Amino acid sequence: MKFTTTMKNEFHIIRAGLAAILLGGAAASTAIAATQPREGLVVECRFEGNAIDSSGSQRHGTIHGRPWFAAGKSGQCIVLDGRQPVHAYRGATVQLEAVLANEDMLPPGEYPVRIQVVGPENLRVFEKTVTAKIPNPKGHPEPPLALPVFSETVSIDGPTGKYRLLATFDRGAAAAGGEIEFSVTDPADMPAVQNALVLWGDDPQLARWLAERGIRVKPFAQAADASREIILAGAKPPSGAGAAEFTELARRIASGSTAVFLCPAVFADGNQPTRWVPLATKGTIARFNECGGYYRGDAFAKRHAIFDGLPSGGILDYTFCREIIPQIAWCGLDPPAEVVSGAIRATLGYGSGLLVSVHDLGAGRFILNTLQIRETLGRDPVAERLLRNMLRYAARDAGKPLANLPGDFDRQLKAIGYAK
Asked: What is the gyration radius of the CA atoms in the chain, in angstroms?
């Protein structure tokens, strides 16, 4: 006899609410240019961070619940996979569930079960007693082997730290399992980003997220500042970006600025996924998990400012970091100045690559990343902490005067494919 959830002999915390998209007649939150409806097309939602109807019919959708957006085959896509995060923000609403696998061990009757959520220093943020009703195993229809005992939506209002969801019989029985650990982060404990950022590319959703958290953002102007900049590149490059736009970005970096590239897709040009990476040897973006993750690589991170306040110094805790651990890694590119995080697979063949790396370019540097920071930003506290850490790390030389371009900068531009 044990308390259990599907596939695991433990209680589980699952995301609150169901994600849904209601189409037709809803007001769009983002203004778009009016277009003529296309014949026969009722609605077209491209899910570029929203549910706007691009067919011209103005049947904009309204998103309910907590879906998120990720890189799709073309642009972004909406994710409705029902995964169960085990890391939440303080005050978040979660769904707690408990199931008893009785296996005909307990005789029929009613048994009191205590449900508790216990946080740091044994702080109890939730407690409730419910009744587990055990039916007669010889009854008709035959009772199930697993009986739902508890399911309730709960707001977790407690300090940052580890929490445990506990389920125990008060009397009359005892069961194995009955405990699962999850994490809560108080947004007030996030490190502040003091410096203003320069946002490069087309990512209004990221711009909105930064603004909502009081992080100052400036557009990527044609004329560079007189001091070094912190440049954040989001999900997409500027519309129509090519050699000229990436050359100007490289000039800013080589003059002492630091750029953070959150998404590998920003470097793609048609069927060349690494075309605009500012390296002579651009490498590839390869999967390090095989067979749908059955043959999984091990992701690791060293102790570094980018992982400040997060578990590091070895293999990443998959439960704590599972929302941000990607399926892809940078492989075969020019050696970085610093490896921060990577992955190794030795189960089905050998494979390895970089998840976070720091590269020098002239007097500046840039950060390459494949961790799912951009994709999970706003719903996973680990992603927010990593982004804030990256921006703080990138600000180390902010405020210094610009450096002169390297004497061989034109040759470097040719080597990385930005000039002929």
From this structure: 25
Amino acid at 33: A
Nearest-angstrom CA–CA distance, 314 and 174:
37
pTM of the model: 0.79
Residue 184 has pLDDT above 70, yes or no: yes
204 CB-contact burial (10 Å; exposed 0-12 / middle 13-18 / buried 19+): middle
By the 8 A CB rule, do 231 and 205 touch?
no
Q: Report residue 51 as tokens.
A: 């549910």
Domains and CATH numbers, the chain: 2-15+86-186 (2.60.40.1930), 190-415 (3.40.50.880)
CA atoms within 13 A on the CB side of 223: 1
Q: Which residue has the higher pLDDT, 295 or 123?
A: 123
Tens of pLDDT, residues 191-200: 999 999 999 9
* Rounded Cα gap, residues 302 and 315, in angstroms: 9
> Is the torsion defined by CA of 285, 290, 292, 298 positive or negative?
negative
Compute φ and ψ for 381, nearest 5 degrees: -60, -30
From the number of C-beta atoms within 10 Å of its C-beta (0-12, 13-18, 19+), residue 143 rates as middle
Q: Which of 250-254, 342-346, 353-357 has the lowest mean pLDDT?
A: 342-346
Neighbours of 401 (CB within 10 A): 9
Tell which residue, 231, 234, 335, 362, has the closest CA to residue 280. 335
